[in-house]
Amino acid sequence: MAVREAEPVGSFNEVREAGLDRDDLLAIYRHLLVTRGIEERGHILYKQGKIPGSFYTGRGNEGAAVGVATAMGPDDVGTPLHRDMGVHVTRGVEPWRIFAQYMGREDGPTRGRDGNVHMADAKLGMIAMVSHLPAMLPVAVGCALAFRIREERRVAVGWFGEGSAARGDAHEAMNLAGVRRLPVVFVCDNNQWAYSTPTHLGYAVEHLADRAAAYGFEGVVVDGTDVLAVYREAKAAIEKAREGGGPTLLELKTLRMEGHAVHDDAFYVPKELFEEWARRDPIERFRTWLFENAELRGEEEDEIAARVKKILNDALTRAEDSPQPDPATLLEGVYATPEDLDTPHHK
Ligand SMILES: Cc1ncc(C[n+]2csc(CCOP(=O)(O)OP(=O)(O)O)c2C)c(N)n1
Ligand SMILES: [Mg+2]
């Protein structure tokens, strides 16, 4: 099976066939803007000394993250990573709770425990990452195995970076998923750098998705700056998995537009590369597409921008009002309670 390179999405008709109407398109646009806005404001919070620990962003990866999350069903589960803020936003984590998480407050999804980037709302079907990459892939495969055993029509989505793909757990996860044809989609956020390591020192095949054939399933390379192409390919892969067609490896190509984290100025990334990929900014690209294909007009765009700005400003105020966690509650939430288990994601 040769790896397939996905075509860009052309017309509105093609998008409709993939299951999106105009309101869905505008929701995607809002999610992209909110995602970037959260991370931009996060930088300011960091400089104000309000974020304990480090600060990671996914600038350049917004389209990849929002595209995949838009394709997921409500009962599907996912293990998004440090570049995937767009997944949290699209699944419905409220921005004020994300700011609270950044600042280690009680109302963040992990209630002020753990590193701020180890974030997920389990009630929305997401499992918080650990730092050991790509240790979440076997977790996603385990979820898919459970869905199979219980005969549930649910799909697990596991994220990883192209650098962490070099580790054994990526191989183990994909091998088991291939052998058992499990309902899982592997999403590689290929942002061309693993800290300061470029791709030619990370893998020796042309595309990371070439590896899928060795595990017995399809690999697809997608331009990760094209949110609609990402959505279309993710939707097809997720529904194929749901119908019993087994896993898919989606390789979403982007460039990490900032340093590995806030402490890193990415001096080792050639300036020309940043300039080239800045011209392919996923949000600007989608905005242009909306103008050309979905009759987005200046006034409507202004309304969306104003609404997003208000959401973010209100979110910051509300997050700043969130208290620090009470040390006396430290042991709460260590084990799941029966109430926590009362969602489809915990059956
Ligand atoms: C097992 C393991 N080794 C090393 C690290 C330190 N580390 C954190 S992120 C990172 C780079 C990961 O690169 P990639 O998988 O491409 O993801 P990206 O950060 O580029 O999204 C490294 C080496 C880690 N978290 N886990
Ligand atoms: Mg990387």
Question: What would you note in describing this structure?
Answer:
It is a single chain. The protein is α/β, with parallel strands linked by helices and 347 residues long. It has one domain (21-194, 205-321): Thiamin diphosphate (ThDP)-binding fold, Pyr/PP domains (Rossmann fold), CATH 3.40.50.970. The protein has twelve helices and eight strands. The protein has a six-stranded parallel β-sheet, sandwiched between helices. α2 (22-47) packs across α12. The radius of gyration is 19 Å and the shape is globular. It starts with a strand and ends in a 26-residue tail after the last helix. Thiamine diphosphate (TPP) binds at residues 83, 131-133, 161-164, 167, 189, 191, 193-195, 256, 260. The site of thiamine diphosphate has 16 residues, from β5.
